[in-house]
Amino acid sequence: MLRVEKLTKNYGKKQVLNSVDLTVYEGEVFGFLGRNGAGKSTFINILTGLAQPTSGSVTFFNNEQLSNDVKKRIGVLPDYSMFYNHLNAIEHLRYFAEISGKKVSKAEAQAILTKVGLKDDSRTKVGKYSFGMKKKLGFAQAVVHDPDFIFLDEPTSGVDAESAIVLQDFIRALQKQGKTIFLTSHNLSEIEKLCSRIAILKDGIITKIGTIHELKTNDTNEMHVRIKHGAISQNAKDAWFDQLSAFAPIVEHKPQFTTVQIHDEQQNAEILRCFHRFDIPVYRFDIEEKSLEEIFIDNKQVG
User: Fold this and answer.
1) Which of 288, 285, 286, 278 is nearest to 231 (CA)?
2) PANTHER family in the record, alphabetically (predicted)?
3) What's the pLDDT tens digit per position in 241-252?
């Protein structure tokens, strides 16, 4: 659906993107993460035709040229959308659908506005819309011409929690229709809930790419194991502590909970043996995966 090869962008002597390779498959919701200044906006601008790369290629639908026919199959919700404030939402959508090559009836426009949570505001002039309402309208504008590939840049930024859920449900519905979605968001829990795969861009280079599970299991950082256990006798405590921490550093210890750090799940058997060796009953043993937020923060701090 989308293939990016060796994409590089220089501004003078500054390299913003460094030989980026990326593939987005048909029908997936693909998350794209990067801190401010990582090159994320430049990358998206190139993909959507707003900027030209220094070198490399971008291929949509097996077509390297971003022709008008290709553009008609792409929808874009930018971080900040431009609107015609003198039009109401229905008029606005019908106008943008038409310039994208598709005629949309008033009923069809109303149906899309309902899906983004603007059912009761469809005949209100856009100039009277709040920031959050304009974000919803921008979302509707991105999909009104029934594109196959949809860029959504921060789709729930600036909307209330209830509206965010509505928009997230709409994203899921679009995926079920077979749409391919390229999603950026600073809301990492949203990325984790919606995306089948993600990529993390740092200093113009993709440093991580894969499913959420792959990122968590392949991450070089340690896992934590939280153990609920019985009381530890005072006589045995020091020896138990020394033996356990020798191969699994103790992150936290409370009277009946201990959290240790491991590099490999094979260490779990030795952890249990250490508890049994000192006759300490184990009631619960949980491996705590890193959250996407922790992986993202660690990725920013490396290098």
Assistant:
1) 278
2) ABC TRANSPORTER, ATP-BINDING PROTEIN (PTHR43335:SF4)
3) 999 999 899 988
